[in-house]
Amino acid sequence: MDRENIGLNVPNILLPRKEVDLSKWAVVACDQYTSQPKYWAEVESLVKGCPSTLNAVFPEVFLEDEDGDERIGRINAAMETYLDEGVLEEQGFGFILLDRKTSHAESRKGIVVALDLEKYDYKVGSESLIRATEGTIEDRLPPRVKIRENAKIELPHIMVLIDDPERTVIEPLFEKELDSLYDFELMADGGHLKGWRVDSEQDIDAVFDSLSALGKQNVFDAKYGVSDKGVLLFAMGDGNHSLATAKNIWEDLKSKSGDLASVMDHPARYALVELMNVHDEGLEFEPIHRVIFDIDADNLKAELNQFFEAEDSSVVFERFDSLDSAKERLAALGDVDGEHLVMFVTEAEYGIIRLSKPSRNLEVGNLQAFINSYLEGKDSIVDYIHGEDVVVDLGSKPGNIGFFLPVIGKSAFFKTVVLDGALPRKTFSMGEAEEKRFYLEARRIQ
């Protein structure tokens, strides 16, 4: 695959000027702590009066509030202020090499680049070079489009994966003598972040060349044992709905252009992301659990049983008085062919759902299919949770139920997507909530 077709762009990245306190500037991805407004209140208190990305993003915990339009107006105004007053400064064209220490990993490596939205398609069955790995819920895009459509800059929390077992793209850059850009502690147990400038022609060419080699059709075919599939070079890790939002805005911009050739150089064609190697030792896949609010637990279990009986599956519930007891039983059961196991918690009990003859390949696929059916016509809502402790806290409250889901193995991640297509929505998470990407780098998109 030649350099022009690998979907990579060298961005002109914006960073805060040196006087800005980066520990207050950088805040975690907006789609975290969605059932914990206290977290965001504490962040707001911490950064009050200081330049911060909190003023330029829309935490999803507030998406249902009535002041959404006013908040978007404040976000756009903050972006313009940060540009006009020189809070953000252009770094020149190049990438940024990252090393992140988290509460769970001593080192997690990445590189900030821009990807070409012309090479991205999130639709079901897509075989595009840049591809969604989980189902995209199009109903979730309009509010995000509304936030981004008049934004002067983008602040990405998007993390994209490459399958580079020989470590040819990112890792060699750590052997170079690169200029340091930042080195600081992230707030709220986010860990420590270091960044270096990658702007020499030689180093940029090396990234392009290594990605081009990974993207060759014959290399792809041999790696995954296929012969009739489009090359998947960039797989979404986190932030798929954000990238899908950028894609929608780009397609809308093209459709409204009277001269398509003139718009192809528009900055909205690209999106800033952090690129990571799925084989990085510091990258761990974590399950995303579910909590359903405002339910009757006995009724829900009865409906769950009926749902799977209708699919010619069978359900057995086992009950325990503690999470540890449920875990011990889960470990004792192990992997049984033709059976899926999911732990749950309610106000009254811990338990295990034993689903025999499941009709879907993954536990999360079966559970989510039931949840989607169960919620139809009800006032109950579901939230997607990182961390067992939060599931216990929320799921054990009166009128709630929490489901604990197993993790998907990252070694088989790319091949699963290549052969089976996008996974069910919210199948996996790259780390716990505090390990998610923090907003720091920016790029002009208007």
How would you describe the overall organization of this protein?
The strands form 5 sheets. Strands 1, 4, 5, 6, 7, 9, 10, 11, 12 and 13 form a 10-stranded mixed sheet that branches. Strands 16-18-17-20-15-19 form a 6-stranded antiparallel sheet, sandwiched between helices. Strands 2-3 form a two-stranded antiparallel ribbon. The chain is 30% helix and 25% strand. Helix 4 crosses helix 7 (240-255). It has 446 residues and is α+β, with helices and mostly antiparallel strands. A hairpin with a 6-residue loop joins strand 4 (95-101) and strand 5. The protein has 2 domains: 3-285 and 430-444, no CATH class; 289-404, no CATH class. The protein contains 13 helices and 22 strands. The model has no long low-confidence stretch (mean pLDDT 94).
Instruction: Briefly note the structural class of the backbone.
Output: alpha+beta
What overall form do the CA principal axes indicate?
A: globular
User: Distance between termini?
Assistant: 30 Å
Number of helices: 13
The level of helicity is 25-40%
Q: Provide the low-confidence segments as ranges.
A: none
Q: Kindly provide the radius of gyration, computed on alpha-carbon positions and rounded to a whole number of angstroms.
A: 22 Å
Number of domains: 2
Question: How much strand?
Answer: 15-25%
The overall strand count is 22
Biggest sheet features: 10 strands, mixed
What integer is the average pLDDT? 94
Annotation keywords:
single chain; 10-stranded mixed sheet; 446 residues; alpha+beta; 2 domains; 30% helix; 13 helices
Summarize the structure in short.
With 446 residues, the chain is of the alpha+beta class. It contains 13 helices and 22 strands.
